[in-house]
Design goal:
By secondary structure, this protein is mostly helical. Helix content is 62%, strand content 0%. Among the domains are: 34-74, Arc Repressor Mutant, subunit A; 93-187 and 222-252, Tetracycline Repressor, domain 2 (Orthogonal Bundle). The chain has helices at residues 2-8, 34-48, 55-61, 66-69, 76-88, 102-119, 123-127, 135-149, 158-185, 190-202, 208-221, 226-255.
Length: 271
């Protein structure tokens, strides 16, 4: 009975399967492999978005029947999870053992993650939908943990520190990706879409007070293009977070009698 219960449980990740994820029976389509299927999947997701993606659409792009694709993957979810890990492999990860300042490495990781989310807007919806235990995501998670350990914060502060930085990046990159997608869907540049949206909001009576209060802030924001504005906002917010980590390192050190913890400036500590 216990064995039957385990078999009835839904598969939680394609990466937990020990098989090659191919259906039995039938011949393998010639000139096709899983890498090619994932490549085309990513291209379609980038071009058309997650909502329009289907196995039938993919098969059409590959000049195959939908059933031929199932020779390589059991379900659409399996394929999406494979595509998710594939694009995560495009991030350039710093070497936590290279002796570089942890602040620069946090900046590098945050920028790479933001770029991923903007370049592939569909990623945001999938990050929380799967376990994300593919090799590329695990490599990213390992580097993030090792870099954050180098800040000097105690282990009990690791998860909240990682969340503060990378949930901020996730939110920022997701909204930035949505902005780019909506502009493209309307056949406009991001700057054109932004001006149209601003004009619409400004003319809405219910938004007039808020817009008026925001004018000074927007004027002081700086930047001639939306890209410049977004870049300035992101970089300053990231510096706020890094400064906050520094402040918390100092506070944690004071709580332990002012002793330096491994990984703080001036010490060679390394995890």
């Amino acid at each position: 009975m216990a064995r039957a219960a385990r078999q009835d449980q839904p598969r939680s990740s394609v990466w937990l399967e020990s098989k090659a994820h191919r259906r039995r029976g039938g011949g393998q389509p010639s000139g096709l492999d899983r890498a090619r299927i994932i490549e085309v999947t990513v291209r379609l997701l980038d071009a058309e978005g997650l909502a329009k993606f289907s196995m039938r659409r993919l098969a059409g792009e590959l000049n195959l029947t939908a059933m031929s694709v199932y020779w390589y993957v059991d379900t659409k979810d399996d394929l999406l999870e494979l595509a998710l890990d594939e694009v995560m492999g495009g991030m350039r990860l710093p070497d936590p053992g290279a002796g570089e300042d942890w602040r620069d490495q946090v900046r590098a990781l945050a920028r790479e993650y933001r770029t991923l989310l903007v370049r592939h807007p569909w990623v945001s919806a999938l990050v929380g939908a799967f376990l994300n235990i593919g090799p590329n995501n695990l490599a990213f998670s390992r580097v993030v943990q090792r870099v954050v350990r180098r800040t000097g914060l105690p282990a009990k502060r690791m998860t909240s520190t990682i969340s503060a930085v990378f949930q901020f990046v996730y939110g920022y990159g997701t909204l930035e990706g949505h902005l780019a997608s909506r502009a493209a869907a309307g056949g406009m540049s991001v700057d054109e879409y932004f001006q149209q949206a601003l004009s619409t909001v400004t003319s809405a009576p219910q938004a007039a007070d808020v817009v008026k209060e925001s004018q000074e802030i927007m004027a002081a924001r700086g930047g001639d293009t939306v890209a410049e504005m977004l870049e300035r906002d992101f970089e300053f917010a990231l510096e706020l977070l890094i400064a906050g980590i520094d402040a918390m390192v100092a506070r944690e050190g004071a709580a332990f009698g002012g002793e330096e913890t491994p990984g703080t400036p001036g010490t060679p500590g390394e995890s």
